[in-house]
Design goal:
Strand content: under 5%
Strand order of the largest sheet: 1-2
Number of strands: 2
Oligomer: single chain
Largest sheet: 2 strands, antiparallel
Length: about 375
């Protein structure tokens, strides 16, 4: 079987395009805030650019590392153990914003372990399932051992609390199991088991319940729980077709919370308009199409499942973020891949793309 000499150039340059757009929009969304907080408009841009550089280096390195290295107990067990320890470590270090999502190293450097859990879970599921495709109906020896590590990681992330990332991992896990051949009756069983837990997380946590009420009635509390989504909708609505112009957005001027992170897509819609927002959407569509193309052209079951896990993780996260911005889903803190300010997310996403690019070398 002949191998492709190079990697998928469409996937490579689409990813770089998203990173470049992200750097430009992070600067636009954060310049005024950074000047007010740190005395320099380039503070957030500088951090993001440094992480982007590290991420691109990781992407280039990993796209040259044979993916078969990950298909081994010698890699899986230590890597999964380290991921688990990092997720536990966030509970013994000082958090911020009443959460425990980051490990802090000094005043400026933070690391978010839940981001590592995304590619690590994709690798684990691919490794565990690829030799058990004919045994996928065996819930005791196949489904349960496959799902149990995922539930542990997801449970720790929910505890941080970070329900958005937990839902991304849950969605990727279910879709990967379906690709491996899991029957729909098991899917229904999983959702039946998860639904009461999710309902409890939404109903019995006051701030989540407030977000749900605001999602159903955005006008009910515009200065309280509904402030985020109302300001986001104002930003999106005032952008029109072509936007106010780059750097000319108004909502980022201390109206829209987190305009450079979770709600950066709202700033894009305001400054670049509907056309700019659609361009971002199309870039993710291209990335998804190239990733799924890789999945269905690969012959190695491990490679297929791994490519699928990485691709769906990125697409689910992008869908969640953009849906929150336009009020299709309740507000949750989750970054837009490759674009939102956030060093760990950017670096790990680029590293994951490096693995996916290596997999594209295996296509005939």
């Amino acid at each position: 079987m002949a191998k492709r000499v190079g990697v998928d150039k469409w996937l490579f340059f689409t990813t770089l395009s998203l990173v470049v757009v992200g750097l430009a929009m992070v600067f636009s969304a954060s310049a005024v805030m950074a000047q007010a907080r740190f005395g320099s408009p380039y503070t957030f841009l500088g951090r993001q650019a440094l992480w982007a550089l590290l991420g691109v280096i990781a992407m280039v390195v990993l796209m040259r590392v044979d993916y078969r290295r990950y298909n081994s107990k010698k890699f899986i067990y230590p890597a999964l153990g380290i991921t688990l320890l990092l997720l536990l470590a966030v509970f013994v270090v000082p958090g911020s914003h009443a959460t425990h999502r980051w490990i802090r190293f000094g005043p400026f450097f933070t690391f978010q372990p839940s981001e590592i859990a995304k590619p690590m879970l994709a690798i684990y599921l691919a490794w565990f399932l690829h030799t058990r495709l004919n045994e996928i109906r065996d819930w005791r020896h196949t489904l349960l051992p496959a799902v149990l590590p995922a539930l542990i990681l997801i449970g720790l992330i929910v505890k941080e609390p970070d329900l958005g990332t937990a839902l991304v991992l849950f969605g990727m896990t279910v879709l990967t199991l379906l690709l491996a051949g899991m029957e729909w009756r098991y899917v229904l069983g999983i959702f039946a088991a998860v639904a009461p837990v999710l309902a409890a997380l939404l109903i019995f946590v006051p701030w989540r319940l407030a977000r749900m009420k605001v999602f159903l009635h955005p006008e009910a509390d515009p200065q309280g729980a509904g402030f985020h989504i109302n300001q986001s909708l104002i930003a999106v609505g005032t952008g029109g077709w072509a936007g106010r112009g780059y750097m000319e957005g108004v909502q980022k001027l201390f109206y829209l919370p987190e305009p450079h992170t979770d709600f950066i897509f709202a700033n894009i819609a305001e400054e670049l308009g509907f056309l700019g927002a659609i361009l971002i959407l199309l870039l993710f569509v291209v990335l998804g199409m190239r990733g799924l193309r890789t999945v269905f052209l690969l012959r190695d079951p491990f490679a297929r499942l791994l490519a699928f896990g990485i691709t769906t993780t990125i697409l689910i996260q992008a869908f969640f973020n953009m849906s929150v911005v336009v009020a299709l889903l309740p507000t949750k803190g989750i970054p837009l891949p490759f674009i939102s300010s956030g060093g760990t997310s950017l670096c790990i996403m680029l590293a994951s793309i490096g693995i996916l690019l290596n997999l594209t070398r295996e296509i005939d």
